[in-house]
Design goal:
Layout (H helix, E strand, L loop, with lengths): L10 E3 L6 H4 L13 E4 L3 H13 L4 E4 L15 E4 L6 E4 L4 E4 L5 H8 L4 E2 L10 H7 L6 H4 L6 E7 L5 E5 L4 H7 L8 E8 L1 E2 L3 E4 L2 E4 L3 H12 L6 E9 L14 E9 L3 H13 L5 E2 L2 E4 H5 L11 E9 L4 H10 L9 E6 L3 H4 L14 E9 L8 H12 L17 H8 L3 H11 L17
Parallel strand pairs: 2-4, 3-4
Antiparallel strand pairs: 1-2, 5-6, 6-10, 7-11, 8-9, 8-10, 12-15, 12-17, 13-15, 13-16, 14-15, 14-19, 18-20, 19-20
The structure holds flavin-adenine dinucleotide.
Flavin-adenine dinucleotide binds next to strand 3, helix 4 and strand 10.
Length: 455
């Protein structure tokens, strides 16, 4: 390379370059890593060049989709980052019901492209999260009980393998690789394109939070458990235990108060949703009922401002079976002991179509769980460390006897190998075999790593 020549269509960003400090930052402000080179890709060939360059120089490789992983695995110290920040295109074919999504797209990009046709790729619950990492870990969100995991909607992926060769994996071509990328994360190669089956949804849904004060938490969570036991697939109800944030949609008198938010989203006929949600909205009565007909895209953006880029975050999670009284008591006792008003404990509501598909369908482990609970410390100053980290660990420990023993891989921070294996669950053995076939030297290890099986 000489003078102004560059080997890629995108940009090479090195420590001395303008923009390096911004480019190395990820969503979690507690992560502080300094890559040797960030390759801001414009096209697939850039990713291939980056990979070959890293291998030639024996450098570690990290892959950046939306940059949201709490563990900060999108960046690595001293290595090469294959950065897809500028590849955010989403192409929709409403006749074939197919979307082709570039690896840097965020969920907001995807919904903006699909919703004008009343379609979605069932994704996550925050619009600024990346499609790539979320899909490769499985993908849970408001519409999963009706339409399955995000990865259940995958039709194919284009992958650059460790030797920089290209393959397309689908049910019919490279089926083991296709199985593995649906839950096995970025362990197998660099995905340069995702092809999804589109599902009908919206554009209007019935959704929004119902707030109860924390002194009634145990009673509310028991009602929640009984109510969702009979929920139709169209309905997901999440529970968020926290100090009510000072956001526009929170009534002024409740801002800062400790609350249980039950958040239903009825992803089906709105009139039917009104009937189904009636008992949930009557119970209590609540301190505030903010359920309304709204655009799917508006509901998807509801949590965005509560989890901005640059704050410090620390997460731990479990899968839970249906809540027992004992588990409810632990949640009610611990969830409100956080000291930061931005920290929270969030229960996702699984089941429905997620649970109906056989475990062996994909590498995702956890279809049998009723909930994923994510205990999140968040502090506005960024930087590592906060007293709520100890709160997260203590609540996580207290929930161990009530949990399934598994956990969602995409909610894992920088944990030891025991928890990584627990996240892949019964899929780990087959994943290690597929890893040995496609990445025997473990080039892709800046992730929740699967160690290649010894042949
Ligand atoms: C605010 C917030 C909300 C969230 N909400 C949800 C939710 O509702 N549902 C849910 O399921 N998860 C959710 N998550 C977790 C989310 O799934 C993970 O953080 C996921 O890793 C984000 O994907 P990303 O592309 O932004 O991540 P990145 O940090 O860019 O990447 C994470 C890892 O994914 C792999 N990867 C990324 N791109 C590629 C690629 N092109 N090819 C190969 N490997 C790749 C790499 O191993 C990389 O280290 C949320 C996270 C945050 C921070």
């Amino acid at each position: 390379m000489t003078g102004t020549e560059t080997p890629v269509a995108g940009r090479l960003i090195r420590p001395a370059d303008a923009g390096y400090e911004d480019a190395r930052r990820v969503w979690n402000g507690a992560i502080d890593r300094r890559p040797a080179l960030i390759v801001r890709c414009r096209e697939r060939a850039d990713a291939e060049w980056a990979l070959r360059h890293a291998r030639r120089h024996g450098l570690p490789v990290a892959i950046r989709g939306g940059g949201h992983n709490v563990a900060g695995s999108a960046v690595c110290d001293g290595g090469v980052v294959i950065d897809f920040t500028e590849m955010r295109g989403v192409e929709v074919d409403p006749v074939r019901l197919v979307a082709r999504v570039q690896p840097g797209a965020l969920w907001g990009d995807c919904d903006r492209a699909t919703q004008p046709c009343g379609l979605v790729v069932p994704g996550g619950i925050v619009t600024h999260t990346g499609v790539a990492g979320l899909t490769l870990g499985g993908g849970i969100g408001w519409a999963m009980r009706r339409h399955g995991l995000t990865s259940d909607s995958l039709l194919s992926v284009d992958v650059v393998l460790a030797d920089a060769s290209r393959v397309r994996a689908s049910r019919d071509s490279e089926p083991d690789l296709f199985w593995a990328v649906q839950g096995g994360g970025g362990n197998f190669g660099v995905v340069t394109s995702f092809e999804f089956r589109l599902r009908p949804l919206g554009p209007e849904v019935l959704a929004g939070p119902i707030l109860h004060r924390a002194d009634r938490a145990a009673e509310v969570l028991r009602f929640y458990r009984d109510f969702i036991a009979g929920a139709p697939d169209e309905l997901a109800v999440y529970a968020n235990l926290r100090a009510a944030p000072a956001l526009d949609w929170v009534p002024e008198e409740l801002r800062g108060a400790r609350v249980v938010m039950l958040i239903p989203c009825y992803a089906g006929d709105v009139e039917a949703g009104e009937r189904v949600l009636r008992p949930l909205r009557r119970f209590g009565p609540p301190a505030a009922d903010l359920v309304e007909r709204k655009q799917w895209t508006a509901h998807q953006g509801m949590f965005d401002a509560g989890v901005p880029h640059g704050w410090g975050y620390y997460w731990k999670s479990h899968y839970l079976p249906p809540l027992t009284d004992a588990c409810v008591d632990v949640l009610a006792e611990w969830a409100f002991q956080a000291t930061s008003p931005a920290s929270y404990t969030l229960l996702f509501h699984l089941g429905g179509e997620v649970a109906r598909r056989p475990e062996a369908t994909s590498a995702f482990s956890g279809r049998g769980a009723a909930h994923a609970v994510n205990i999140n410390a968040a502090w506005t100053e960024g930087g590592p460390g906060h007293p709520d980290v100890a709160w997260v660990r203590a609540q996580w420990d207290a929930l161990v006897p009530h949990a399934t023993g598994g956990l969602y891989v995409n909610f894992l921070g920088n944990e030891d190998e025991t928890l990584v294996r627990a996240a892949y669950g019964s899929s780990y053995g087959r994943l290690a075999e597929v890893k040995a076939r496609y990445d025997p030297e473990n080039v892709f290890r800046a992730n929740q790593n699967i160690v290649p099986a010894v042949r």
